[in-house]
Design goal:
single chain, 651 residues, alpha+beta, Immunoglobulin-like, 42 strands, 16% helix
Length: 651
């Protein structure tokens, strides 16, 4: 007995009308109805009180009696063993999104995954194709708006475009390039392209004005995106799947689900036999396994995300799988947790591409530390008793962690002299988890600091750390270096910050010396020299005083650095030996780094007697060349006499 349209709804056909996107575009979705007992020829008339009251009947012209044989041949060829084995092996590039709609200001997710086996060369995202194409993402650098969803993956090249603008509308291509012998790159393989529609939200008044001017099909961002387009799309797909003649009628202002049903004319009596053969072959043991031989599921292996950010878990599948939902599970086994379920809108995961039947990427907002774990993208198959596991990914390990900032070093405000202690503090912040290690080195020698102080940071789930070390400075620390080294689980190499101790060390002059002079002759020119030795840094001020009054005739060159890294300086003042300067005191005063001055003095003795000669005991002769010559002759004569006497004594 033939079923009425109301019985269609009870038998699940109306429910099939709300299946996934990929199932809706299959015109053969009406076959299960025929397989359940509809004889041909038959005619269908919609009931106004049913879910199909907005649909008109489907009309099909008579089909030749060869239809059963054609159906049988198509089914046998499509399910023949080895059909999937002829698929291309090696490198594959999957760009599953045919069309994506995104609101202006939101984040656009463009999915692209590749398999192993490809040649060396980068993967890029291009907007448009041909001479006018624009590079949106390049592994060597891209716009700050465009980022990788999985930075460390060599198979997942999904990108995120933040703050979408109307000019971002267009067709995007994921492209694999191959390096050539000349170190250039050439095209190797590209995806089929993803058409991006940017929807601009307008005020109600503006929408009404546009609707009056253009009708119910509004133009947004340079592309028609309206119920009219959805209806036209549905009509085109039905035209591709049904033989002529046929009649199609759709409501212009309604979505595709309100399309009036296709009215079918009587079909030849051979149709029931064809449908029966299809039913028997389709339900034969192993048919579902053969249909899913080409099914593939891809998900990345590892992702690192910071607390508070949005986690993107990528999962793409190919066509050809059995009917059934795709879910995301955290952990595998008895303790797993469902993160995303197509039937449960309250699940924490959100679809990145809602209308896709191949892209099941999800977003988890405001990530917490407890979100760390392994996530599995799982395909289920519908059975008579419920959903059963069909295929699952290898799992994506999610690490919720934050890298510590580059460390900073703080030191005392003032310089420290040798023998004194100085404290240094190393700080870093914004890291997670809280376990962190700090090491201090003086040159290459490990020194023991105080225990590090770890405190909660200003942002959620991050931490700050400070570590202090105290060092007793020495004079030879001028060439020493103090280093803070930070180690954390997020780092492949320690973060370091070094400090040269000479920047905090001050070595005062070891001594200030003015060489004394004996009595000098009247009107002679006398030089007093001051030596300032062993100081650091090299800034020192030298002042000469005569009897306590500053004089300006001194000559002070720049300090000279010694091999030890210290400095020394020599300053000279020239004086005329006049009677008025007799017994004058000349003082050299050195001031280093604003510290207390160091000084040394010498007295000028002027001989005003004017006497000269070898035997003269006058003070003037002591400073004359003649005196020194007489003294040398006396010594020579005395030496000869002593030598003569020594020889005679030996004889």
């Amino acid at each position: 007995m033939a079923q009425t349209p109301r019985e269609w709804e009870a038998s699940g056909l109306a429910q099939g009308n709300a299946e996934e996107y990929g199932e809706r575009q299959n015109p053969n979705r009406f076959l299960p109805l025929w397989q359940k007992g509809f004889p041909g020829p038959h005619q269908l008339e919609a009931h106004r009180d049913t879910a199909w009251r907005t649909m008109k009947p489907l009309a099909m012209a008579p089909v030749t009696q060869a239809l059963p044989l054609a159906c049988l041949l198509l089914l046998l060829l499509g399910s023949a063993p080895g059909a999937d084995a002829q698929a291309v092996q090696g490198f594959q590039l999957h760009q599953p999104q045919k069309e994506v709609s995104v609101m202006a200001g939101e984040t656009l997710t463009l999915i692209c995954t590749v398999t192993g086996g490809g040649p060396l060369g980068p993967v890029k995202w291009l907007k448009g194709w041909g001479s006018g194409s624009e590079t949106i993402y390049d592994q060597k650098g891209s716009s700050s708006r465009v980022t990788r969803a999985v930075n460390e993956s060599n198979t997942d090249f999904t990108i995120l475009i933040r703050d979408v603008r109307p000019e971002d509308a267009g067709t995007y291509y994921c492209v694999k390039f191959r390096k050539t012998a000349s170190d250039d790159v050439e095209l190797y393989q590209r995806g089929e392209g993803t058409e991006v529609v940017v929807v601009v939200v307008q005020d109600e008044d503006e929408d009404k004005e546009e609707e009056e001017e253009h009708g119910s099909c509004n133009l947004h961002a340079g592309k028609w995106r309206s119920p009219c387009e959805d209806t036209r799309w549905s009509v085109e797909r039905v035209q591709e799947g049904f033989a002529e003649p046929h009649q199609l009628e759709a409501h212009q202002a309604a979505p595709w689900r309100t399309m009036k049903p296709l009215a079918m004319a009587p079909v030849t009596q051979a149709l029931p036999l064809a449908c029966l053969l299809l039913l028997l072959l389709g339900s034969a043991p192993g048919a579902d396994a053969q249909a899913g031989q080409g099914f593939e599921l891809h998900q990345p292996q590892k992702i690192s995300v910071m607390p508070g950010e949005t986690l993107t878990l990528s999962c793409t599948v190919t066509e050809g799988g059995p009917l059934g939902p795709v879910k995301w599970l955290k952990i595998w086994g008895s303790g797993n947790e469902t993160i995303y379920d197509q039937k449960d809108p309250s699940s924490r995961g959100m679809r990145a591409v809602n209308d896709s039947s191949t892209d099941f990427t999800i977003l988890i907002k405001d990530v917490h530390p407890k979100d760390a774990g392994t996530y599995y993208c799982v395909k289920f198959r519908k059975t008579a008793t419920g959903d059963e596991l069909y295929r699952r990914g290898n799992g994506t390990v999610v690490l919720v962690q934050a890298r510590p900032s580059n460390p900073t070093l703080t030191r005392p405000k003032y310089r420290v002299q040798p023998g004194k202690k100085a404290s240094f503090t190393c700080k870093t912040w914004g890291f997670f988890p809280s376990d962190i290690n700090v090491k201090w080195y003086k040159d290459k020698t490990l020194i023991q600091p105080q225990l590090p102080n770890v405190t909660p940071g200003p942002s959620k789930f991050t931490y700050n750390m400070s570590s202090t070390v105290t060092v007793t400075l020495q004079k030879d620390d001028i060439r020493s270096e103090l280093t803070c080294q930070v180690l954390h689980t997020t780092l492949t190499a320690p973060l370091t910050r070094s400090y040269h101790l000479r920047q905090i060390l001050r070595v005062p002059p070891s001594k200030v010396v003015v060489q004394p002079l004996g009595p000098v002759g009247l009107n002679e020119t006398v030089s007093f020299t001051c030596y300032v030795q062993g100081f650091y840094p090299g800034s020192v001020t030298v002042t000469w005083l005569e009897n306590g009054k500053e004089i300006k005739t001194a000559s002070t060159p720049r300090p000279i650095e010694t091999p030890e890294g210290l400095f020394e300086l020599r300053s000279t003042v020239v004086v005329q030996a006049v009677p008025e300067k007799n017994i004058s005191v000349f003082t050299c005063r050195a001031v280093h780094e604003g510290q207390d001055p160091l000084s040394s003095s010498a007295t000028l003795w002027v001989d005003a007697s004017g006497q000269q000669g070898c035997s003269s005991g006058g003070a003037h002769l002591l400073s004359s060349p003649g005196l020194w010559l007489c003294m040398l002759l006396d010594k020579a004569i005395l030496g000869l006499v002593l030598f003569f006497l020594f020889k005679r004594w030996q004889a």
